[in-house]
């Protein structure tokens, strides 16, 4: 099908490391009746025509008329049921939690990503103010727990914008998260993304900030420390030379793949156990003896965690152009840590 061929091509283009890490980001294409969405837990760059989940748009649009529970966990489970009931019969794959956001746009193509260059803005103290200055035609959505509540907010803002401007917005920045770009052609999507990245790039250059982070060479103790950590936590470990690891929650994806807080110190049973007692989990990212270590159940998972830690360091560095990092609140972080949909997504990444 022609539409699916087109969204696959676009997804591969925006599935590179510049735009997303791991299973982050999602894409969709629609006609009047059907929305095809990327399944949760898959990567943009490996999508095929068969992977897209066809969804009934009428069911998705009807979600606002449903009488949903005011209790968060129950409501999210009701929303999940509605999402599943919108899947066309015979289709497999769990639709992305951001499906309803995609359906909120009328435009044919929607590409949602988390580029570090953009998160340098969305995670920054002055992000909202700067986005109004640099991208007056965009919408800024202050941080909201993902899922239904975020959909409601975005849907309301799109409608408000349309009332004032006579058309829907094409760019939505989500604070501490990423960006949604909507367009009726692939060319529009490409042009909007490249103008966003170009404008932000100029801001970082003006502020004298390097795009890339500085990564030191590994120390001579790195292999021994990696082995020690692997033994203590019975895990696979990926090692890097030192870089400035971020100590706090930046975005949901950083939490899902690398957790919010690194362990800093010598590796021993007592210290790691005390970290777990404080944080509720053993560390994923560890800093010891001038090196950085990422833990994971497999080599891929450990490497992905390291990628997210490096991405976080890059985001924090870029945020300096806009007043420095603004971390997520404790409540926002805890919501992600306890969110069923996210643990599903994380578990899908082998
Ligand atoms: Zn996202």
Précis, in short:
With 350 residues, the chain is α+β, with helices and mostly antiparallel strands. The chain has 14 helices and 11 strands.
Describe this structure in words.
With 350 residues, this protein is an alpha+beta fold. It has two domains: 2-206, L-fuculose-1-phosphate Aldolase (3-Layer(aba) Sandwich); 222-328, Class II aldolase/adducin N-terminal domain (L-fuculose-1-phosphate Aldolase). The protein is built from 14 helices and eleven strands. It has helices at residues 2-13, 57-61, 72-86, 99-104, 116-122, 127-134, 148-165, 186-206, 222-233, 252-258, 269-279, 299-319, 330-337, 340-348; strands at 26-30, 34-37, 53-56, 109-113, 139-141, 171-174, 178-183, 236-241, 263-264, 285-288, 291-296. The strands form two sheets. The chain has a seven-stranded mixed sheet, with helices on both faces. It has a four-stranded mixed sheet with strand order 8-11-10-9. α11 links the parallel β9 and β10. α5 packs across α12 (299-319). The longest helix is centred in the middle third of the chain and has 21 residues, at 186-206. It starts with a helix and ends with a helix. The model has no long low-confidence stretch (mean pLDDT 94). Zinc ion binds at residues 98, 112, 114, 177-178. Residues 98, 112, 114, 177-178 line the site of zinc ion (ZN).
Descriptors:
11 strands; 7-stranded mixed beta sheet; binds zinc ion; 4-stranded mixed beta sheet; alpha+beta; L-fuculose-1-phosphate Aldolase; about 350 residues
Mind sketching the topology for me?
Blueprint: H1 2-13, E1 26-30, E2 34-37, E3 53-56, H2 57-61, H3 72-86, H4 99-104, E4 109-113, H5 116-122, H6 127-134, E5 139-141, H7 148-165, E6 171-174, E7 178-183, H8 186-206, H9 222-233, E8 236-241, H10 252-258, E9 263-264, H11 269-279, E10 285-288, E11 291-296, H12 299-319, H13 330-337, H14 340-348
Parallel strand pairs: 5-6, 9-10
Antiparallel strand pairs: 1-2, 1-4, 2-3, 4-7, 6-7, 8-11, 10-11
Helix pairs in contact: 5-12, 10-12
The structure holds zinc ion.
Zinc ion (ZN) is lined by residues 98, 112, 114, 177-178.
């Amino acid at each position: 099908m022609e539409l699916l061929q087109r969204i696959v091509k676009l997804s591969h283009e925006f599935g590179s490391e510049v735009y997303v890490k791991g299973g982050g980001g999602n894409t969709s294409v629609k006609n009047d009746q059907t929305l095809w969405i990327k399944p949760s837990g898959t990567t943009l760059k490996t999508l095929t025509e068969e992977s897209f989940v066809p969804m009934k748009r009428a069911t998705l649009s009807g979600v606002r008329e449903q009488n949903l529970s005011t209790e968060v966990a129950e409501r999210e489970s009701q929303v999940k049921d509605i999402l599943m009931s919108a899947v066309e019969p015979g289709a497999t794959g769990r639709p992305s939690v951001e499906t309803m956001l995609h359906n909120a746009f009328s435009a044919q193509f929607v590409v949602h990503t988390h580029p570090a260059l953009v998160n340098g803005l969305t995670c920054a103290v002055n992000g909202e103010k700067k986005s109004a200055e640099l991208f007056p035609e965009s919408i800024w959505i202050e941080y909201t727990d993902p899922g239904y509540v975020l959909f409601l907010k975005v849907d309301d803002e799109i409608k408000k914008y349309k009332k004032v401007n006579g058309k829907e917005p094409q760019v939505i920045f989500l604070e501490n998260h990423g960006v949604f770009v909507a367009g009726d052609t692939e060319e529009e999507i490409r042009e909007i993304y490249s103008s966003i990245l170009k404008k932000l790039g100029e801001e970082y250059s003006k502020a004298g900030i390097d795009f890339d982070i500085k990564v030191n060479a590994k120390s001579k103790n790195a292999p021994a420390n990696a082995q020690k950590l692997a033994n203590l936590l019975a895990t696979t470990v990926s090692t890097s030379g030192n870089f400035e690891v971020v100590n706090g929650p930046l975005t949901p994806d950083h939490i899902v793949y690398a957790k919010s807080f690194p362990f800093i110190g010598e590796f021993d049973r007592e210290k790691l156990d005390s970290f777990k007692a404080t944080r509720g989990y053993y560390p994923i990212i560890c800093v010891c003896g001038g090196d950085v270590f990422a833990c994971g159940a497999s080599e891929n998972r450990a490497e992905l965690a390291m990628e997210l830690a490096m991405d976080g360091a890059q985001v924090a560095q870029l945020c300096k152009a806009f007043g420095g990092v603004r971390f997520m609140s404790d409540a926002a972080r805890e919501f992600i840590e306890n969110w069923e949909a996210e643990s599903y997504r994380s578990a899908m990444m082998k």
